[in-house]
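Aim 2 progress update. The chain analyzed this quarter is reproduced below.
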Amino acid sequence: MASIVATNVKRGQCIKYEGETGIVLNLDHRTPGKGNALIAATIRSFQTGKTKSIRFASSDKVEIVETDRQKLEFSYSDPQGFHFMDMSTYETVTLDAELIGDNKNFLVEGMTAEILFIEGNPVTVDVPAVVELDVTDTSDGIKGDTANNPTKPATLVTGLVVQVPLFVKIGDKLKINTAESSYSGRAN
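Predicted structure tokens:
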């Protein structure tokens, strides 16, 4: 592991701090009126999953953890976990449901996800910001009911239920915002 000065830490880097390993989510360089500059970092721990703020002096050394980000294609899920394939080597990586978390609501066969590996172990799974999913179940909208922008629930191919406009019907392909698990529009 390499050590760098705290002022050179960047967003998205993985570091070791206080005995834990985490990813830097946000950085704020502060220069108080008197004294040395500070770096306030928001870091999410891979061990606990919790986010906390850490302050580094500008001269502090920070250990950078060797990482590898891979874009893998989702193949399928079964009781053993979620199976992804590296399309260049055709190797399969199986991740457990706990690591996938709520991203399971957005994974469909053939979708590419970015997986972060630290020392050969997967630690995070990132799906695209917007995914396209098919509607498998929804009720018919009531004709003429247009007051106050009404919505209805729709079940998507992954099992996720989102609120959608009344004109959406079974078989429609929708754009879903993965950060908010919400309807974003119709797919073309």
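The CA atoms of residues 1 and 100 lie 27 Å apart. The chain has a mean pLDDT of 88. These observations will guide the mutagenesis experiments scheduled for the next reporting period.
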